[in-house]
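Deviation from plan, reported transparently: guanosine-5'-diphosphate complex.
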Amino acid sequence: MQRIVVLAGGVGGARFLRGLTSAAPEAEITVIGNTGDDIHLYGLKVCPDLDTVMYTLGGGINEEQGWGRAEETFSVREELAAYGVGPGWFGLGDRDFATHIVRTQMIGAGYPLSAVTEALCQRWRPGVRLLPMTDDRVETHVLIDTADLDEEPAGEGGGGRRAIHFQEYWVRLRASVPAHAVVPVGADTAKPAPGVLDAIAEADTVLFPPSNPVVSVGTILSVPGVREAIAEAGVPVVGLSPIVGDAPVHGMADRMLAAVGVETTAAAVAQHYGSGLLDGWLVDSVDEGSVADVEAAGIRCRAVPLMMRDPETTAAMARAALELAEEVRA
Ligand code: GDP
Ligand code: CA
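Because the crystal trials were delayed, the predicted structure below was used instead.
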């Protein structure tokens, strides 16, 4: 049986995983999920990327949106707002709240996030083993100019910089202001969650889905030991570009790439991961012209359709990634 490890963020990772589970129904798939997006709200621990994977594979996702629960209502948020309690910019629905209440209760009772995630997955049965990258608290922060925070005029001298939580940057500010740096706070002392390093060591193939290379895959790789384990596993590592035609497919990943000094092109993202980590890279057919550049950087590259329009197209992407892995292995 083929063992596949996937480093996943939220929407891009989850949609790809749905294609992978249908393309490789017999494979044993372990997903190492990004927890750098986690945020504490109303005393609750919210894990947006883990939940997006869990809901998507478990059949509970809001399909159009790509995150959050299907058939959601927002009574709790309205009631909180009536008390003047925010933040109003982070939309948690009533059904979603239940997940965060259960998670927070279990963490309060002493369970690590990995055990909590396993318990939540007993309801959702995602068909993969979902592991948080770490049980330790890691929260991605983004460094911006203080002057760009509307509630805080720069004042005398101005020109300062401030780190804000990734969700505040992404959701409240919609990444509308430049980011100067992305810092996974807490990552330097975090340990990979139980099972993470073993899954990598036992994997036949490692895949990077078309997730955000900086704040999803990059954050997972920032947990000490994970990057090294992948590089040393000696198995094919194949990624799929989230950048198509020099732009992110959805969202504002270009802002995050700019913050780490990487161009928004499929080839630049491959080189950012580097040939020390990546053996194979898929770019979209429209980026066929960049295949030679990627190969010149020592990474085997193919151009195939990479838009996850429907389950069939997405499964074909997963098959292409597995085929490239076999080519690399041969
Ligand atoms: P997030 O945590 O919800 O932001 O999700 P991920 O990090 O897993 O994925 C976000 C990335 O997915 C974005 O950078 C998008 O460019 C990429 N993405 C979304 N849909 C598609 C698609 O259909 N094809 C490709 N190639 N990339 C996609
Ligand atoms: Ca995310």
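The chain has two domains: 3-61+113-135+196-329, 139-187. We consider this an acceptable substitute for the interim report.
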